Amino acid sequence: MERTLVIVKPDAVQRGLIGEVIARIERTGLKLVALKLSKIDRETAHTHYQEHVNKPFFQGLVNFITSGPVVLAVFEGPNAVSIVRKTMGATNPVDSVPGSIRGDLAISLGRNVIHGSDSPESAEREISIFFSPDEILSYERAIDNWILERD
């Protein structure tokens, strides 16, 4: 089963959007398997954004993600990465369709409410930055038979 990391960014936490963001992803049918409120330190932010280290916007990313509390979550399900990416909307909220998280809740590229892993490989790397294996639960939901096709 695929997993993906979601970060409810400091702007969304400050705006009181944690429940809205998490609920929208849960409504897709993906299963929440880890969740915590945290403050990301600069070293962890550097590790998380390592692929952007030589880009002009890198320092801004680090400054923003460390500016306040975030909510870190892991969601699980078939095609979890793609489903979360579609639910989030385009990175630039101006390009996000109405109904997506960013399309409905954000208007600025630099304050776009949510981060989601961009590939299964990135998800694995990112999840390991923020969660130890014992923080991620494995469990069955009573509704799984109504969400997932099984042979």
TrEMBL record:
Keywords associated with the record: ATP-binding, Cytoplasm, Kinase, Magnesium, Metal-binding, Nucleotide metabolism, Nucleotide-binding, Phosphoprotein, Transferase
GO molecular function: ATP binding; metal ion binding; nucleoside diphosphate kinase activity
Record has Cytoplasm as a keyword: yes
GO CC list: cytoplasm
Cofactor: Mg(2+)
Reaction catalysis annotation: a 2'-deoxyribonucleoside 5'-diphosphate + ATP = a 2'-deoxyribonucleoside 5'-triphosphate + ADP; a ribonucleoside 5'-diphosphate + ATP = a ribonucleoside 5'-triphosphate + ADP
Domain Nucleoside diphosphate kinase-like, chain residue ranges per copy: 1-138
GO biological process terms held by the UniProt record: CTP biosynthetic process; GTP biosynthetic process; UTP biosynthetic process
Signal peptide: none
SMART domains, sorted: NDK (SM00562)
Superkingdom in the source lineage: Bacteria
Enzyme's top EC category: transferase
CDD domains documented for this protein: NDPk_I
EC number(s) given by UniProt: 2.7.4.6
Subcellular compartments: Cytoplasm
Family per similarity comment: Belongs to the NDK family.
Entry function: Major role in the synthesis of nucleoside triphosphates other than ATP. The ATP gamma phosphate is transferred to the NDP beta phosphate via a ping-pong mechanism, using a phosphorylated active-site intermediate.
Subunit structure: Homotetramer.
Name of the protein described by the UniProt record: Nucleoside diphosphate kinase
Source species: Thermobaculum terrenum (strain ATCC BAA-798 / CCMEE 7001 / YNP1)
Gene that this sequence comes from: ndk
